[in-house]
Amino acid sequence: MPADDVEHASNPHEEGTGAIDTNSNTWIVVSIGAVWLAVLFTSLFSPDLVFGIEEEHVKLAAIANWFWGVLGTVFVLRSTVFLRPSEIGWGQSDAWPWIAIAVAGLWLAATVVSIGVPTLEIGSDIQVPVASAVAPPIAAMLTWYACRFLVEGFAARNQGHAPA
User: Fold this and answer.
1) Residue 2 contacts by C-beta under 8 Å, 6 or more apart in sequence?
2) Which ranges in the chain belong to alpha helices (H)?
3) For 121, phi and psi rounded to 5 degrees?
4) CB distance 75 to 151 below 8 Å
5) Which of 32, 38, 106, 111 counts the highest number of beta carbons within 10 A?
6) Domain spans of the chain, in order of start
7) pTM (two decimals)
8) For residue range 32-59, what is the model confidence (pLDDT) as tens digits?
């Protein structure tokens, strides 16, 4: 098989099959891995909610962040893998590396904010980790926005070069 045929066969988007190649799978795994590493680190290292005279400690981030991680994962998958077949080749394959960079940056920022920002002290017996409660939902919503923005931006750029 000539080298041109091997190269052509390794790019399923040129064939019009709608299959996902290995390179795109890598970017998707990087994106989702960044989300779940952020969830893990914020769950383990974020400040606790402290309340009461006996200073009860509750890991607020560990209780809530898994939900935001699932939501961020769904947003990444919806923008990269689960597009309608008519949308295949219109931008998501070009956007995958940029989605991975944006998602990793957003969730890294959420992790740094969740862990690094001090707690809000109310009176002498309540400490609320506001950043740990607010940063992950913001990262999840910005993940949705960044994924949709990048896919639609690359789609608009590639509109004149639609696959057959």
Assistant:
1) none
2) 3-9, 12-15, 22-45, 60-80, 92-116, 130-157
3) -95, 125
4) no
5) 38
6) 21-161
7) 0.78
8) 999 999 999 999 999 998 988 888 889 9
